[in-house]
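Our consortium's second objective concerns turning raw sequence data into structural hypotheses that experimental partners can test. To show how far this objective has progressed, the report includes one record in full. It was chosen at random from the queue rather than selected for favorable results. The single chain below, 347 residues long, was entered without modification.
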Amino acid sequence: MHYGFCCTFPFAIFCELDAIKWTVCDIKFEDVRLRISPPFRSESYLRRGSPDFDYWSSPILKERSAKTPEQYSRPFSVYPTLTQDVHGKTKATVVVRDDARFESLPLNSIQFDIFTTDENEAHALFEKVKSRGLRNIKRGSHQYWILQNPSYFESDLKSTFCADENYTIHEPPWSSTFIVTPSKLSKPISHELWQKSWIDASTSQPIDWLDYLLEAEHYSASKEKEKSLMQLALSLELLKSDLWEALNQAGKCSRREMRKAQDSTQEIYHYFADNLYSACGDSIERFDRDSFASIKQIWMLRGLIAHGRAERVSSMVGQRLDDIDFETLIEGVLGAAYFVEHVRRSL
């Protein structure tokens, strides 16, 4: 006897096209056997983009006694392909039939079979393996919407119509939608990543800079810019901490200097630049000036937000927070991560 869990998520898991041929993943998790199905889709790919619009529910149309055509709205969905066009933007697939040809498969469900006779243990193991495995998949694919409720991949239900001066509507209303362009690093999940993510789920991993960066990308896509900024700052703090721990292990700084660098919250970009240059002769200001500029801006904005002075953002940087290019700030944190790895290898 065992317990099975079929789980459908509010987010899509974009997989390579051969996902329909993947085999079951059979693992040991805390000495209990688990079988994890390949990802699948448990509902139609299509989504109705506009409501079943009743013309006469509109006070304006009712007042004008508008002449209206028959309602017609075709179900459709729009999915990112996770491939880039010549301008670096993610291409999209418009789906109007369930047998559409995809460049990657947007799947949303997994079945977990947990071979224990203890129902409480089965529920606990299910929650633990699900969250760890999906976190590994999220990190490996850079699909930052995994484990989130990404409303930014679907717009409001909306009917658009064109009317003349007499409010005569000459054609059925149409619907439209939009999607957020995912990160340039987002990629479809391969069978190798899928299997490895569940196997590695048996080991708990501490949160690191990449977890915070993925959270920042989610909040940026959700238009929650203050939350995104704070996650970017946390990502930088962890990178700084990792960098100075590596310096200490290589004998480039004392333990006291390492602790000072890790604990300091004042203008932390110095610990990627001049303070670092004093310790090991390297500096992100020389290695990647664009990332250095982004780090400085993130930290200045973080100070304003953390101390309740968000209204000063415009006067300090000449832009409202909502108008700042967060893609550049996110790329700056990625540049800092590459730089930290560069320093580690050179020690």
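The partners drew two points from this record. The radius of gyration is 25 Å. Strands lie at 3-15, 25-29, 32-36, 47-48, 75-84, 90-95, 105-114. Both points have been shared with the crystallography group to help prioritize constructs.
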